[in-house]
Every structure is written in structure tokens, then in C-alpha cells.
Amino acid sequence: MANFDRIDRISAEVTRELDRIIRDELNDPRIRGTWSIVRAEVTRDLRYCKVRISILEEEHRKGMMAALKSAAGFIRRELGKRVELRYVPEVLFELDTNIEYAAKIDRILKETEGGHDA
After folding, report:
1. Residue 115 CB contacts under 8 Å (≥ 6 apart), including other chains
2. How many domains does the chain have?
3. Which CATH number do you get for residue 67?
4. Could you read off the pLDDT of 78-90 as tens digits, one per residue?
5. 88 is in which domain, residue-wise?
6. Per-residue pLDDT reduced to its tens digit, 15-31
7. Would you give the end-to-end CA distance of the chain in angstroms?
8. Residue 10's closest CA among 48, 42, 37, 39?
9. pLDDT < 70: residue spans in the chain
10. In the 3-class helix/strand/coil scheme, how is 37-80 assigned residue by residue?
11. Tag placement on the chain: N or C end, fewer CB within 10 Å?
């Protein structure tokens, strides 16, 4: 059980540092709009880190994901400088649309409630 706590702590630290690196160090014009790192999951062997990122504006998603994937090597090097780990995980970016989906469901529910006033 202690190993899972350690992985959770590492994942949380990696999430914080990735956010800082992307916001402060990347100067790619494709990185714009409203975005958030939803979760960074580091594997138990610390070889990979799957980063789920939510991008609110649909028109920025494709460009931003391309920018992040092309900067993955730089991001990994920066992460290695900031987080003390035996292995610096390979960073894999994945688009997360759960927030958009939840907002859509919320909007549908509100429309449905509006049509049933008693």
C-alpha cells in the first residue's frame, strides 16, 4: 500500500511541475486558451506518465495537443531538472473531454428542467 501512496505523491508533484513548465517555459503560440491538467498518472516503474489535459475551447485543441506532443522531449528534460527521480518518465499527452461532457449534460438537464415547470 505504501508504494501506491508514493506513486500518488510523485504523480501530484509531476502534475504541479508540468503545469509550471507548460505555462512558464513553453513559448509556442499554439498553447493558448483555457486549459488545465486534469491528471498525470505515473506508472509504478516510473517509465511513463500519461497526462490528461482539458482544453475548453474546441478551436485550440488540435494545435495545443500538437504543440505539447512536439515539445514532449523538452518537457521531459525540464521535469528531470525539477523532480528528483531515478528515471524521468516519458510524458504522453492525452486530451480529456470529461469537463466538456459534464457541461453538456448540465446544459441538457437545465433545458429539461426549464420545460417542466409545475
Report:
1. none
2. 1
3. 3.30.300.20
4. 999 999 888 899 9
5. 2-114
6. 999 999 999 999 999 99
7. 52
8. 42
9. 1-3, 115-118
10. EEEEEECCCCCEEEEEEEECCHHHHHHHHHHHHHCHHHHHHHHH
11. C
